[in-house]
């Protein structure tokens, strides 16, 4: 949801139902963004847009306090751990921070604290002020001086165990040997990447055929949360300490005293930290750090003020997920002025034409920006969602001087056009009505939901469009799909251009005979180009022969790794397999629903083919999957209606074996249990009941013994029921069984 499309209604004017509906929708949206941000390291909205959603959510909750539950987002932080690492509970929760955006809000923060503590306005009250670094927080547990655990924040209560990874970070001591270190000491701080290191990682990333990382924060999070700690070691992560969790005995009585101790014990601590004695001094420090922001060499997004006296911190305590004694004073997004040299059109996997502004490179807060998204045709024309005006209706043209904004986490945006700098001979941008990749018509469909023209213009070429094909292949190997080690988007392009990979199945035959040599050649060619570009960019002469030979040595390794990565994916979870197919509207959640429901790709395919042939029962089977809906069902059926899609799948299945979803078995309440059905079942046939149980990971047996876990008995059950009673087993009727497995195990 874009905050611009948030309902315009003031919260006070919402009725109860409206408020409830919007509150629930916002919760779902925010959770999704949290998961994208914290677990996927791939945010979709800017921090400012996220904050706007969040404020609206909090406003509604403020007006309707009954809506809040323990799971309310105002009481939790971040996202649940991703499941890739073991979880660990924090002895002391890791919290979030309240936010201030204006000087007045900072003054109010000081006043609020004084009211709470009953301190007169002129009583002394000191605060520390230090930069809020944009990385990810980490808790390090030391026992008797030895580092025993490193845990990410996760949802604040429970985080991910990344101990081996943290051990590879040079700023993190394995041993605290200084005098006076508490026996139990949880040190908390931030893991981050400097701009320079981030740029170097991206250079390597691109040279290895992978997608560049969006920004330093994502780079830091992705580097730390590697399953292989050796990868983390190869990334120059930095850590600084600014807080603590469980401590057996506090070694100081003030915030600045504690930070001094952390420095004494061997940690890097915040740069530019100052002890302030008034709101004016706090704001002065905020301005000072703001002026230095671009030269710090790493991303910050605000200044954190903390009450200095720890006894006062203790008295102030917490409100839900935020300490009352601290606040983050945020900086606005960083803005720069540059020129649009060109407008490129990218064609996505589903044919969407997305315009991208190619900018005269400009440094925004330390990061060089070359591209900015222009969203869609209407955005360029100055028309916003809902037909409202953007930028006062000014359009965007090639040659325009514009202000752009880099808001921490997303692709830079164009804010305003400086009309006084517009060249006299400029012309409005003519958005293409044919696909730049394949020449097919590109159309804006009628959107049945809004009743208006879709904002997105799409290529109608389908799989005849090379751009769509390449994007689908990229999707196929992407992180939440096949996630093939060593095969990123750049290599897909290279292999496509070389004619080696035209469909997913082709990936799995790259190692065969001549194809292997050709793969190697193609990759070598591309890497040489990249090396030359890099040298050119660094204003050096072309790469020397010796340099190239050295890189060529690595070549062989790249191809070996690539082929090993491919081999490792010959079996894959069914849910990932379905997601990888890139069917419109079938994202990860729907892929999981389908995997659970059908249990095999063959069952899904056959049902879809029957539905495509007009079999209403088969169609009903899809609709019956809670949460799927008509639009998705139609999209699925459409795919299997087409011969070439069926052929593509058949070819792929010759190479790859999808495995039923493991999560089903472990998540279901009957996983691993032995079940016996006896007597007459009324709602289910015996076969259905058996299939259902097996799908949920249970074993179905014909006879009752001490090894039986559950006996489902219908009317007319006889000796088996009696035996179950004698053995004291769990007995239930059919309704009880259905309730236990959740209405058919389709959820
Ligand atoms: P937020 O997640 O935006 O509510 O802000 C809280 C987070 O800010 C913490 O979990 C830390 O990751 C981060 N942070 C960065 N620098 C600091 C700092 N100097 N003091 C406290 N938190 C910080």
From TrEMBL:
Keywords: Coiled coil, DNA damage, DNA repair, DNA replication, Ligase, Magnesium, Manganese, Metal-binding, NAD, Zinc. It catalyses: NAD(+) + (deoxyribonucleotide)n-3'-hydroxyl + 5'-phospho-(deoxyribonucleotide)m = (deoxyribonucleotide)n+m + AMP + beta-nicotinamide D-nucleotide. Zn(2+) binds at residues 435, 438, 465. It holds the Pfam family DNA_ligase_aden. InterPro entries: BRCT_dom (IPR001357), BRCT_dom_sf (IPR036420), DisA/LigA_HHH (IPR041663), DNA_ligase (IPR001679), DNA_ligase_AS (IPR018239), DNA_ligase_CS (IPR033136), DNAligase_adenylation (IPR013839), DNAligase_N (IPR013840). SMART domains: BRCT, LIGANc. GO terms for biological process: DNA repair; DNA replication. Its EC number is 6.5.1.2. Its cofactor is Mg(2+); Mn(2+). The keyword ATP-binding does not apply. NAD(+) binds at residues 47-51, 96-97, 130, 153, 190, 306, 330. The keyword Glycoprotein does not apply. GO terms for molecular function: DNA ligase (NAD+) activity; metal ion binding. Residues 520-569 form a coiled coil. The active site is at 132 (n6-amp-lysine intermediate). Gene3D superfamilies: 5' to 3' exonuclease, C-terminal subdomain, 6.20.10.30, BRCT domain, DNA ligase/mRNA capping enzyme, Helix hairpin bin, Nucleic acid-binding proteins. Residues 665-738 form the BRCT domain. GO terms for cellular component: cytosol. DNA ligase that catalyzes the formation of phosphodiester linkages between 5'-phosphoryl and 3'-hydroxyl groups in double-stranded DNA using NAD as a coenzyme and as the energy source for the reaction. It is essential for DNA replication and repair of damaged DNA. NCBIfam families: dnlj, PRK07956.1. Belongs to the NAD-dependent DNA ligase family. LigA subfamily. This is DNA ligase. It comes from Enterovirga rhinocerotis.
């Amino acid at each position: 949801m874009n905050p611009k499309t948030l309902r315009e209604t003031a919260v006070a004017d919402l009725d109860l139902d409206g408020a409830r509906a919007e509150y629930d929708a916002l919760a779902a949206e925010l959770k999704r963004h949290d998961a994208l941000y914290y677990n996927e390291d791939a945010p979709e909205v800017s921090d400012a847009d996220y904050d706007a959603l969040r404020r609206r959510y909090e406003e509604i909750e403020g007006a309707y306090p009954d809506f809040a539950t323990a799971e309310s987002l105002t009481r939790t932080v971040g996202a649940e751990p991703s499941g890739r690492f073991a979880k660990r509970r924090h002895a002391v929760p890791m919290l979030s921070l309240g936010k201030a955006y204006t000087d007045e809000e900072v003054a109010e923060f000081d006043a609020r604290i004084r009211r709470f503590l009953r301190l007169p306005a002129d009583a002394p009250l000191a605060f520390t002020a230090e930069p809020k670094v944009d990385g990810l927080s980490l808790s390090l547990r030391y026992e008797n001086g030895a580092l025993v655990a490193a845990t990410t924040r996760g949802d604040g209560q429970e985080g991910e165990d990344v101990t081996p990874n943290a051990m590879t970070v040079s700023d993190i001591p394995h041993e605290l040997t200084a005098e006076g270190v508490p026996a139990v000491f949880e040190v908390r701080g931030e893991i981050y990447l400097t701009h320079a290191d981030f740029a170097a990682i991206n250079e390597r990333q691109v040279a290895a055929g992978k997608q560049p990382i969006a920004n330093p924060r994502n780079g830091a999070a992705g580097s730390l949360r590697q399953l292989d700690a050796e990868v983390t070691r190869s990334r120059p992560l930095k850590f600084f300490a600014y807080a603590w969790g469980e401590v057996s005995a506090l070694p100081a009585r003030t915030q600045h005293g504690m930070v001094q101790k952390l420095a004494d014990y061997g940690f890097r601590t915040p740069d530019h930290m100052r002890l302030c004695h008034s709101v004016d001094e706090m704001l002065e420090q905020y301005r000072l750090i703001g002026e230095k922001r671009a030269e710090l060499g790493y991303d910050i997004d605000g200044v954190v003020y903390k009450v200095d006296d720890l006894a006062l911190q203790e008295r102030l305590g917490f409100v839900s997920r935020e300490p009352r004694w601290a606040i983050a004073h945020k900086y606005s997004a960083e803005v720069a002025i540059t020129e649009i040299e060109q407008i490129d059109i990218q064609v996505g996997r589903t044919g969407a034409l997305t315009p991208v502004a190619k900018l005269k490179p400009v440094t925004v807060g330390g990061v060089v920006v070359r591209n900015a998204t222009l969203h869609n045709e209407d955005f360029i024309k100055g028309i916003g969602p809902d037909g409202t005006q953007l930028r006062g209706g000014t359009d965007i043209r090639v040659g325009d001087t514009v202000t752009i904004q880099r808001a921490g986490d997303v692709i830079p945006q164009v804010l305003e056009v400086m009309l006084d700098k517009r060249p006299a001979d400029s012309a409005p941008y003519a958005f293409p009505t044919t696909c730049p990749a394949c020449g097919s018509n590109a159309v804006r469909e009628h959107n049945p939901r809004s009743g208006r023209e879709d904002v997105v213009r799409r290529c109608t070429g389908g799989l005849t469009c090379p751009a769509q094909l390449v994007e689908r292949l990229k999707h196929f190997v992407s992180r939440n799909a096949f996630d093939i080690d060593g095969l990123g988007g750049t290599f897909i392009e290279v292999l496509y251009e070389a004619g080696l990979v035209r469909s997913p199945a082709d990936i799995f035959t790259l190692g065969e005979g001549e194809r292997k040599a050709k793969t190697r050649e193609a990759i070598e060619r591309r890497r040489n180009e990249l090396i030359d570009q890099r040298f050119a960019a660094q204003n050096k002469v072309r790469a020397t022969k010796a340099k190239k030979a050295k890189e060529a040595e690595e070549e062989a390794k790249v191809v070996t790794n690539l082929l090993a990565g491919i081999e490792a994916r010959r079996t894959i979870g069914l849910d990932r397999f379905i997601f990888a197919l890139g069917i419109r509207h079938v994202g990860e959640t729907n892929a999981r629903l389908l995997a659970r429901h059908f249990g095999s790709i063959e069952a899904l395919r056959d049902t879809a083919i029957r539905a495509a042939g007009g079999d209403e029962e088969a169609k009903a089977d899809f609709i019956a999957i809670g949460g799927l809906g008509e639009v998705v069902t139609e999209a699925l059926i459409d795919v299997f209606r087409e011969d070439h899609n069926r052929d593509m799948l058949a070819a792929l299945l010759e190479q790859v074996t999808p495995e039923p979803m493991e999560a089903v078995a472990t998540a279901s309440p009957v996983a691993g249990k032995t079940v016996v059905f006896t007597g007459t079942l009324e709602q289910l046939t015996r076969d259905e009941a058996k299939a259902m149980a097996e799908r949920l990971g249970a074993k179905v047996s014909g006879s009752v013994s001490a090894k039986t876990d559950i006996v489902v008995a219908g009317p007319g059950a006889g000796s088996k029921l009696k035996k179950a009673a004698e053995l004291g087993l769990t007995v239930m009727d059919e309704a009880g069984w259905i309730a236990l497995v959740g209405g058919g195990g389709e959820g």
